[in-house]
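Exercise 7b. Backbone tokens:
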């Protein structure tokens, strides 16, 4: 039996890492095997591409280059890690997937439909079974990031507020377009309230 593919999306600082840990704990408590991964990343090759993408010194990176590098990292991730493990019946929990590219490059970089098309090729059409989108206005998310101890803002986090607003709008559009797959959750609520809503979505997916 194929495993379930779960993604967690949200603006920087929306609390994805915290909720991913809680999802993992809950699924393990419910006797489910779950593998954690992230994007860009998840394999040796993809992690090397991640370094290029997030390095603040790469300020001159063209939007098209950025989009193709994300897709390249994802193609390797899907082929080497995600699909083989799903086919073995393992559940995959990823921090970001194609929705991020569509929001950040499609809307943030104003590249439009080509981003979705390139990513369909990179993934073979693979989509998560459920996506939890942690909604938080970008100014609040970046403010949270700046308060984190020893956190250095990466290349995308350092983008202007206008860019992050476009990304935020992109996520809203995606939630409307894929309402059956994407579960939108107000990330300004406390951690336990946010997770209670995530747990309800997991329970429906797994039939707990």
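Sequence design result:
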């Amino acid at each position: 039996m194929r495993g379930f593919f779960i993604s967690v999306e949200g603006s920087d600082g929306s609390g994805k890492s915290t909720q991913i840990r809680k999802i993992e704990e809950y699924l393990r408590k419910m006797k489910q095997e779950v593998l954690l991964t992230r994007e860009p990343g998840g394999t040796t090759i993809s992690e090397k591409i991640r370094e290029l993408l997030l390095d603040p010194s790469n300020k001159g990176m063209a939007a098209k280059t950025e989009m193709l590098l994300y897709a390249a990292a994802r193609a390797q991730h899907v082929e080497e890690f995600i699909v083989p493990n799903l086919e073995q019946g393992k559940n995959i929990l990823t921090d970001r997937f194609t929705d991020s590219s569509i929001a950040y490059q499609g809307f943030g970089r104003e590249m439009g439909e080509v981003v979705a098309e390139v990513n369909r090729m990179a993934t073979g059409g693979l989509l998560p079974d459920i996506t939890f989108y942690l909604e938080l206005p970008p100014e609040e998310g970046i403010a949270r990031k700046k308060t984190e101890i020893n956190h250095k803002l990466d290349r995308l986090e350092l983008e202007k507020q206008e860019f992050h607003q476009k990304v935020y709008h992109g996520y809203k559009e995606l939630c409307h377009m894929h309402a059956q797959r994407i579960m939108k959750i107000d990330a300004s609520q406390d951690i336990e309230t946010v997770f209670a809503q995530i747990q309800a979505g997991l329970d429906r997916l797994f039939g707990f």
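Instructor comment: The beta strands are 5-10, 34-38, 91-95, 130-135, 182-186. Residues 5-206 form a domain with the Rossmann fold fold (CATH 3.40.50.300).
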